[in-house]
Amino acid sequence: MSAFAGFCLPARAAIVGTCTIMVGASGTMTTSPTIGILGSTQAGGQSAEATITASSLLCSLLNLLDCYSVSAPAPAAFTSSPSSGGTNVTFATTYRLDSGVSTPGSTTQKLVNGTHTVQVDLTATKSSGIFPAGSYQGMVTVLCE
After folding, report:
1. What is the DSSP letter of 29?
2. Could you report the per-residue pLDDT of 52-108, keeping only the tens digit for each?
3. Spatial separation of the C-alpha atoms in residues 62 and 10, rounded to whole Å
4. The pLDDT value given to residue 27
5. N or C: which terminus of the chain has fewer CB atoms within 10 Å of its end residue's CB?
6. Strands 114-126 and 48-56
7. CA angle, 29 as apex, 80 and 105 as ends, to 5°?
8. pTM for this one?
9. For range 17-28, the mean pLDDT
10. How far apart, in whole angstroms, are the C-alpha atoms of residue 95 and residue 74?
11. Which parts of 1-100 fold into alpha helices (H)?
12. Are 70 and 52 in contact (CB under 8 A)?
């Protein structure tokens, strides 16, 4: 009986492989007509792009389809903005994997082995007032885990 007890212990499995993210084009955020929203989905805006290459021998050998997952959570703040430009602002991200459906940034999607394209959109919404004139920069981290 004690020989079987050793097999009942939980085991941790490691994914043997890599998940590489290559940053492509930077996105462009533009303002809404009311200047209360800055976003890459506004008219004239552009999504940021990246390429993800997932490769796992273990996933291939076991024919697993979900060894890695991707997400792009919203940042907490601008990386740079004019004075008072970053106050009363909430951030939201969405991303599209392989030109698919737009997914909220904090939601993970499973990846199969191979190369995938990701388009990321960032929206900043000011809860009161408008965005002052100046240069704004935001950074979204794309995760593959």
Report:
1. -
2. 999 877 665 665 555 788 999 999 999 999 998 999 999 999 999 999 999 999 999
3. 19
4. 96
5. N
6. antiparallel
7. 90
8. 0.83
9. 93
10. 11
11. 2-5, 57-61
12. yes
Tokens of 10: 């939980």
How far is it, in rounded angstroms, from Cα 54 to Cα 98? 13
Could you read off the pLDDT of 40-61 as tens digits, one per residue? 999 999 999 999 999 877 665 6
pLDDT value for 13: 46
Nearest to 109 by CA among 74, 140, 51, 65: 65
**Among all chains, which residue has been given the structure tokens 């009363």?**
88
CB hemisphere CA count around 44 (13 angstroms): 6
| H helices, E strands: number in the chain | 2, 10
Give the percent of the chain with pLDDT over 70.
Answer: 83
Q: Kindly tell me if the per-residue pLDDT of 31 is higher than 80.
A: yes
The DSSP element (H or E) to which 85 belongs, if any, is none
SS3 88: coil
Those residues with Cβ within 8 angstroms of residue 35's Cβ, 6 or more apart along the chain or in another chain: 130, 131
Q: Tell me the β-bridge partners of 68.
A: 111
Q: Which residue has the tokens 């601008």?
A: 78
